[in-house]
């Protein structure tokens, strides 16, 4: 991983973490799509209220075990549930999730699927759910791109924004990172061709219009 990529990934992580407001998470059910090795969860773990339920979903049992092992060493136990499943089949009750964290989970899913993942899990979200998402954006696709043409909209900013809006979220703010040219913990190296440029675009959430940086879900 090149140093520029490390810096971008770290800043991206930091920016997300800075916008996790623990005071809004008491008693909430939080779902993370693709907890992976837990860079995001480990960064925000201390800020999680003890009565929040954090569902770390991933289809890779090895990553879940690794993350569980690390978190078990933490000084304080938090309510983290590890669920090993394919995202669309997460065994959750409809309308049970208050907060959705999507730190490149959708982007990684999108290398192999045409569907926009937040649509597939929408039924699990409460009407006023919040979303904090970071998406990999391809600035260009090379002729030998590993991303099939049909799957590219989920790596293009206008399409991602449109789909999030269609799910009823109002954007309050976004941040776009510097360009990334190599894989890192949030981007699969094998998925990027040499001539392709990527960056991350983040949409941050808040629970009410008093929190200025957010997607807020419209209630009908
Ligand atoms: C880049 S990682 C996400 C990074 C993670 N959020 C972190 O903070 O470290 C993407 C994760 O999504 C998982 N994933 C990809 N496709 C999936 C699917 N269809 N169902 C469940 N998990 C999936 C992968 O196993 C991987 O751990």
CATH C-level name: Alpha Beta
Q: What's the CATH topology name?
A: Rossmann fold
Q: Under the CATH scheme, which architecture would be assigned?
A: 3-Layer(aba) Sandwich
Q: Rg to the nearest angstrom?
A: 17 Å
Main sheet: strand order: 3-2-1-4-5-8-7
CATH homology superfamily: Vaccinia Virus protein VP39
Number of strands: 9
Strand content: 15-25%
Order of helices and strands: HEHEHEEHHEHEEEE
**Helix coverage percent:** 10-25%
Low-confidence spans? 205-216
User: Globular, elongated, flat, extended or rod-shaped: what is the shape?
Assistant: globular
Number of domains: 1
Mean pLDDT over all positions:
85
Instruction: Give the names of the bound compounds.
Output: S-adenosylmethionine
Major sheet description: 7 strands, mixed
Structure classification: alpha/beta
Q: How many H/I helical runs?
A: 6
First CA to last CA: what distance?
45 Å
How would you characterize this protein structure?
This protein is α/β, with parallel strands linked by helices. The protein has one domain: Rossmann fold, CATH 3.40.50.150. It is 24% helix and 24% strand. It contains six helices and nine strands. The strands form two sheets. The chain has a seven-stranded mixed beta sheet with strand order 3-2-1-4-5-8-7. Strand 1, helix 2 and strand 2 form a beta-alpha-beta unit. The radius of gyration is 17 Å and the shape is globular. The termini are far apart. About 5% of the residues have low confidence. S-adenosylmethionine binds next to helix 2 and helix 4.
């Amino acid at each position: 991983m090149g140093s520029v990529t490390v810096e971008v990934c770290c800043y991206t992580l930091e920016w997300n973490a800075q916008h996790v407001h623990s005071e809004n998470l008491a008693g909430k059910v939080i779902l993370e799509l693709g907890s992976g090795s837990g860079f995001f969860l480990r960064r925000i773990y201390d800020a999680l209220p003890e009565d929040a339920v954090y569902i770390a979903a991933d289809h890779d049992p090895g990553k879940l075990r690794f993350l569980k092992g690390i978190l078990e060493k933490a000084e304080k136990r938090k309510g983290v549930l590890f669920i090993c499943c394919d995202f669309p089949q997460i065994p959750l009750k409809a309308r049970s999730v208050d907060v959705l964290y999507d730190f490149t989970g959708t982007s990684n899913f999108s290398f192999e699927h045409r569907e926009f993942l937040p649509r597939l899990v929408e039924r699990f979200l409460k009407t006023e759910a919040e979303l904090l998402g970071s998406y990999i954006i391809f600035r260009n696709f090379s002729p030998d791109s590993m991303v099939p043409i049909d799957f590219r909209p989920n790596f293009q900013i206008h399409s991602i924004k449109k789909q999030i809006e269609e799910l009823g979220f109002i954007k309050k703010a976004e941040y776009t990172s510097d360009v990334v040219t190599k894989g890192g913990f949030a981007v699969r190296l094998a998925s990027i061709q040499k001539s392709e440029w990527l960056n991350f675009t983040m949409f941050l959430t808040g629970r009410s219009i008093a929190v200025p940086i957010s997607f807020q879900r419209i209630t009908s």
